From TrEMBL, chain A:
InterPro entries: GvpL/GvpF. PANTHER family: PROTEIN GVPL 2. It comes from the Bacteria. This is Gas vesicle synthesis protein GvpL/GvpF. GO terms for cellular component: gas vesicle. The keyword Glycoprotein does not apply. Its main location: other. The lineage of its organism: Bacteria, Bacillati, Actinomycetota, Actinomycetes, Kitasatosporales. GO terms for biological process: gas vesicle organization.
From TrEMBL, chain B:
It comes from Streptomyces wuyuanensis. One of its GO terms (cellular component) is vesicle membrane. This is Gas vesicle protein A. It holds the Pfam family Gas_vesicle. Gas vesicles are hollow, gas filled proteinaceous nanostructures found in some microorganisms. During planktonic growth they allow positioning of the organism at a favorable depth for light or nutrient acquisition. GvpA forms the protein shell. Residues 112-140 are annotated as: Disordered. Keywords: Gas vesicle. The keyword Membrane does not apply.
Amino acid sequence: MSTYVYGIARRSHPGPATELVGVGNPPLPVRTVAGGELIAIVSDAPEDLRPKRRDLLAHQNVLAEASASGAVLPMRFGGVSPDDDAVKAVLAERAEHFEQRLTALDGKVEYNVKASHDEEAVLHRILAENAELRAMSEANKAAGGGTQEQKLRLGERIVAAVQQRELIDADVVHRELTGRAEAISVGPESTGWLANISCLVARDGADAFVAAVDQLAKDNPHLSLQLNGPLPPYSFVE
Amino acid sequence: MTVVPAQQSRSGGGTSGLYDVLELVLDRGLVIDAFVRVSLVGIEILKIDVRVVVASVDTYLRFAEACNRLDLESGRNASPGLPDLVGEITESGARGKSKGALSGAAQTISEAFEKARDESSSESRPRTRRTTSRKKEEQE
């Protein structure tokens, strides 16, 4: 029977407060495998494990519960060991590294911040700041929308201005969060956001961090900020 | 290139907040070479939650038309770039952006997680907050 691994903790970790179940259908009971001063939080691995939403949530749930009572290094979803002995071997082999990371992450949580533009608000802002674009827009509007060519000319300029604004705002968000977090990890540039930044925050400083993000949102009403956390420190394990 | 968040998954419990956490579960976290990794084939189901709109003729037209729809009355009379102005416009907009930014409109990712757990007792639940209560699909 292969072994699904959720995370790694110290042997002194008290374990989750409640009996947990993990991946699989029906969900498999969570247990620990000890090796030296470390434990791995594991369950049996289901035969046909796939990245289904339910199993992804189960992975996250186990880590959220276990992290509530002590430092845990969260695994990425989908790590399967051939058996418990192979887990023990990994714990022994990389004990020093794991213990160093557990010390560094003790009492800390991750918050993920994604920023995107509120489209209507950012267009307002761009037109308010740029008289030429405002004039073009008003001329188009007065002409019942304008010709295709006028629309394209305006649209191209607007898109360029929005992109400019995205860079400026990404920098604003980055700078603000850098000053508020113990460490940051910039996520992949991808679709749907202008900034995707994970922040490592002391658990007892979380309220202040959330308040700072709240303030950032108030100061930048054209930004839509999405804050997720507290989470296990996925982005800070390596 | 401009990216615009468009569609979010409508399947069970699907919120973009959920998506945002799953992205971390899938892309970050500790990887151990000695372990087999589950194939992520099929994970596009999650990834298509957000769609890229590449800067193109269509995008230009869309933005030009979005500008045409804007009410510029207050924009014309105010000095440019006043945050108050933007805030005011935003709040009075039809989309009902709330004043308190993050304070309201919490999206309930924790509820989605709770559905997936049999036992529920924890003092620190993941939270998801949004600055707007607006649904993404309204941007379509």
